[in-house]
UniProtKB/TrEMBL annotation:
It is found in: Bacterial flagellum basal body. Residues 5-35 form the Flagellar basal body rod protein N-terminal domain. Residues 229-273 form the Flagellar basal-body/hook protein C-terminal domain. One of its GO terms (cellular component) is bacterial-type flagellum basal body. The lineage of its organism: Bacteria, Bacillati, Bacillota, Bacilli, Bacillales. Belongs to the flagella basal body rod proteins family. This is Flagellar basal body rod protein FlgC. Keywords: Bacterial flagellum, Cell projection, Cilium, Flagellum. It comes from the Bacteria. Signal peptide: none annotated. Residues 122-178 form the Flagellar hook protein FlgE/F/G-like D1 domain. It comes from Candidatus Kurthia intestinigallinarum. It holds the Pfam family Flg_bbr_C.
Amino acid sequence: MFKGFYTATTGMIAQQRRTEMLSNNIANASTPGYKADQSTVRAFPNMLLSAIEKNGKANLQNGFNPMSVQQIGTLGTGVYMQETIPDYTQGQLVQTDLKSDVALVDEYLPVRGDGSRTGGLYFRLQTDGQEAYTRNGNFTVDSQGSLVTSGGNYVLSTTGEPIRVTSDDYTITEDGRVLENNELIAQIDVAYVEDPDRLIKQDNGLYYTEDGNELTSAYDDNDIAFSMRQGYIEQSNVDAGSTMTEMMSAYRSFEANQKMLQAYDRSMDKAVNEIGKV
């Protein structure tokens, strides 16, 4: 009886965490460059139940009493949400006509050795602690003329320095070169990671490497093709319609496990307060 309590409870916890993840996706549906999280739900190992009884025969001389074993079947022990994995597919581009907005467009990325997924491209940023990466190209120019993110992180050039402009008359070409009065002042650096799943996702659309080492530049790999679009931003890749459907499904699953838990509770109440008096 108590195994049923645990099984239903694990189902409720898994669906609650899944609902929280989907709610975060919906909340960031309009965040530029946001990558939707996906969950993987797995089951705990099943238990094999068997009935062990005496076979009715007399004990042997060595004192061994043979028993008969009859397999009943397996018993599920519940589920859990194993991990969340971002969906790194590119979002749609939206025209803003703002000079500081830049969209990073994936044209061709090499497929990983196992053939499962491609790598990822990111703008390289300078933060207080270490180098960070983002797909959010909703940049601005601060009071010192530096190109920064909404969180105040500097956008780095291929030389590793912040990009600074002295006027509003600047242009960003498709290959990331920043031209001011038709003169080259910098080139926006783009970092490449072979396995995006190894990045650590943080707030404000930032990513960090697990070991703290810097990613390689995409300009150093001739097999990678990409471009930039000035005056555009990359939208979130959250599908609001399907996400709402998944939230309703998670809610219904939570509700079903809740009903099961209530049924077990009524059965235990009857066993303790009624059958126990007999």
